[in-house]
Each structure stands twice: as structure tokens, then as C-alpha cells.
Automatic annotation (TrEMBL):
Domain of life of the source: Eukaryota
The protein's name: Fibronectin type-III domain-containing protein
Positions of transmembrane segments: 234-258
Organism: Oryzias javanicus (Javanese ricefish)
Cross-referenced Pfam families: Tissue_fac
SUPFAM superfamilies in alphabetical order: Fibronectin type III
GO terms, molecular function: cytokine receptor activity
Gene3D superfamilies with a match to the protein in the record: Immunoglobulins
PANTHER family reported in the protein's UniProt record: INTERFERON/INTERLEUKIN RECEPTOR, INTERLEUKIN-22 RECEPTOR SUBUNIT ALPHA-1
Keyword Transmembrane helix (UniProt): yes
Length: 361
């Protein structure tokens, strides 16, 4: 009886050893790595043959073992099973199979994949000051090797509803701080803080953790800071800016108006001098006369003078000059004068008689 029991114990140990090490004594070291809900299985089989193949299977609580389609009969020693798991509230299992031949496969000890394996990247925060409140928006990291849409990555909040803790503190007074923890059920978490002192710099940091296991938490985000300003303090710069813009607009409008007015006003042109009016000429005794109305009277005593010929020559030239003066140059403007129907007489005084000595000469 004792021998039978010992034999049964040895067989059980051998069976367990084969399950763990393989039928040929092969031992493989397996490990699961997880970052932002990704799942990567790594293994190392130091004594395995170079031409040996591997397969990976997964199991979710309540379901049978299933092959990972892209990790069947592979020669590499890693397998990303991230797309397989989507429900992290249930138990998830992974196991590695070693193929010594097409008909011989040895499965290593299964590994569980749960919150104890989770590690997370830190989130990012943005802050804004509005209506005397500090608003903080928290954005979560994307899960590696997952795509929830064609546009971008898949944030971890698409897969879990984490607890998000936001802390706001005075940059120059560490005792002045507030903290708020919310259950995030949206892709982005937003919180607001009030009762902060004006004129101080406040910074915000945030981190998140797995809903049912607070130890699986992310590091804190990088701080983002903002200076608190009262609404009245913000109103004065805005009014000053508005006044400056209005003044600039009015200045430009006035400049355009003056330029337009200057263009619409014609420049004075130099006007030719007007000819003297007939009234002015009459007042000066210089009434214009038609050359046809001019009669010449000669002193009879001077006609027989030897100088009469010379005088006649001069007289003819004088009459032509008078006619040219009255009628003007044919190319120039002609002034139409009216003598009033009266005849004008031009009297030429007698020329002085030269002495006989001069005449003889």
C-alpha cells in the first residue's frame, strides 16, 4: 500500500514537471508586461532548439482557452495580446505552448493578467482662470497597440473608469492647496476650484488609478500654472485696449475723409489777364476807334515843305501801325470795339521846318 502511494506521488510530480518544463526537460521563463492596459507576453527558453516553435493562448473568466491568431506556430519569443482583452473586471489568463513536433505540444504554466500587472503613464493637464474659478482639464494616456477609432489612439478611459485626483497648490505657499478626487466616466476629466487668492500663482497636478485597485496608479502629471486675476483687474486692460482700437479707427476714418475732400476740391487755375474794359479806356480818353473813321488833317503850310515827303512816308507807316494796333495781330485775340458811330479825327501837328542849312545839306 505504501509502495503504491509512493508511485502515485512520483507520477504526479513527473506530470507537473512535464507541464512546466516540457517532455524533454525544457524550462521557459515567461513574464507579462503591461503599460496603459497593453499586454505583452515575453518568454525565454534557454535550452530550446533553434528550430522550435511556439503558440500562445488566452482565457477570460468563464470562457475556454483560445489561440491568439497572430501568435500560432511562431519562432519569435514575444506576443502582443493587447487586442484580446477588453474586460479588466474579469480574470484573464495567458499560457505559452512549445511545439517539439507537429503532434507534440507542451503548455507552460498559465499566467494571470490583472490589475497587479498594470502600470500607467502620467496624464497631462491644462489650466485656465475664468469667472474667478480655476478650471483643470485632465487628458489620459493612450493604450498602446490599441485603436478605438481611425482618427487616433485609444485612451485608457475608453477601457476603464479610473479614479482621478487633481491637486491645486499655491506656487509660493505649499500649505495653500486643495485636492479633489472624481470618478471619471468620460474620455476627459474636468474639475473646477474656487476660493483661491487673487494675484497668486497656482499650479495643478493630476494622477489616476485603477477603479478597484488603488495601487495600480499613474505618476503625477507635470504641473501647469496660472496667475489668478480678479474680473475687475482684467476689465481695465480690456477697456484700455478697446479705447486704443477705437482711437485708431477714428484716426484712420478722419484721414480718409480729408484725403477724399482734398481730391474733390479743384485746384485754382491761373486765369489770363482780362483786357481793359471800354469803360476804363473811355475814362482814360483812350476809346478804341475804327481805322476807317480816322481822318488826317495836314497843315497847308507844311505840305510844300521838303520834309513833307519824309513826313508822308512816316505818316503812311504810322497809319499802318495804327491799323495793326487797332485790329491786332491776325493770330491774336481781336477785341471788338464800338466807337459809337462817331468819327474820330487824328490831328498831326506840323513838323518843325529844318533850317536852310540843314536842308541844303
Amino acid at each position: 500500500m505504501r509502495t503504491h502511494a509512493l508511485t502515485w506521488t512520483l507520477e504526479l510530480c513527473v506530470t507537473i514537471s512535464l507541464l512546466i518544463r516540457g517532455s524533454d526537460g525544457l524550462a521557459c521563463n515567461t513574464a507579462v508586461e503591461s503599460l496603459d492596459l497593453s499586454c505583452l507576453l515575453r518568454w525565454d527558453c534557454p535550452h530550446a532548439s533553434p528550430n522550435i516553435s511556439y503558440s500562445v493562448q488566452t482565457k477570460t473568466q468563464g470562457d475556454p482557452w483560445q489561440d491568439v491568431p497572430w501568435c500560432v506556430w511562431i519562432s519569435t519569443q514575444t506576443c502582443d495580446v493587447s487586442p484580446v482583452f477588453s474586460n479588466f473586471e474579469l480574470y484573464n489568463m495567458i499560457r505559452l505552448g512549445v511545439h517539439f513536433s507537429p503532434s507534440s505540444t507542451t503548455w507552460m504554466k498559465p499566467l494571470k493578467f490583472d490589475y497587479s500587472d498594470f502600470t500607467f503613464s502620467s496624464p497631462s493637464v491644462s489650466v485656465s482662470w475664468k469667472h474667478e474659478r480655476l478650471a483643470v482639464k485632465v487628458q489620459f494616456p493612450c493604450s498602446a497597440n490599441r485603436r478605438c477609432s481611425e482618427e487616433g489612439c485609444c485612451p485608457v478611459t475608453k477601457l476603464i473608469d479610473p479614479w482621478t485626483t487633481v491637486t491645486v497648490y499655491n506656487q509660493h505657499n505649499s500649505s495653500d492647496q486643495q485636492s479633489l478626487t472624481v470618478w471619471t466616466q468620460e474620455l476627459v476629466s474636468s474639475v473646477e476650484f474656487s476660493g483661491l487668492f487673487w494675484g497668486h500663482n497656482y499650479c495643478a497636478v493630476a494622477n489616476f488609478s485603477f477603479p478597484t485597485f488603488s495601487m495600480a496608479a499613474s505618476p503625477k502629471s507635470a504641473p501647469r500654472c496660472v496667475k489668478t486675476i480678479s474680473d475687475a483687474g482684467m476689465l481695465l486692460p480690456m477697456m484700455s485696449l478697446g479705447i486704443c482700437l477705437i482711437s485708431l479707427f477714428l484716426f484712420l476714418l478722419l484721414t480718409l475723409f480729408l484725403q477724399k475732400r482734398r481730391r474733390s476740391t479743384p485746384e485754382p487755375e491761373s486765369q489770363p489777364k482780362n483786357h481793359a474794359s471800354s469803360h476804363d479806356l473811355l475814362s482814360l480818353g483812350l476809346a478804341p476807334t475804327d481805322p476807317c473813321d480816322i481822318h488826317l488833317e495836314f497843315d497847308q503850310s507844311s505840305i510844300n515843305s521838303p520834309s513833307s515827303l519824309h513826313l508822308g512816308q512816316n505818316l503812311s507807316l504810322t497809319i499802318e501801325d495804327v491799323r495793326d494796333t487797332v485790329h491786332g495781330d491776325p493770330g491774336a485775340d481781336v477785341a471788338d470795339w464800338d466807337s459809337g458811330g462817331r468819327e474820330s479825327t487824328l490831328t498831326i501837328p506840323p513838323a518843325s521846318h529844318p533850317s536852310e542849312e540843314t536842308w541844303d545839306k
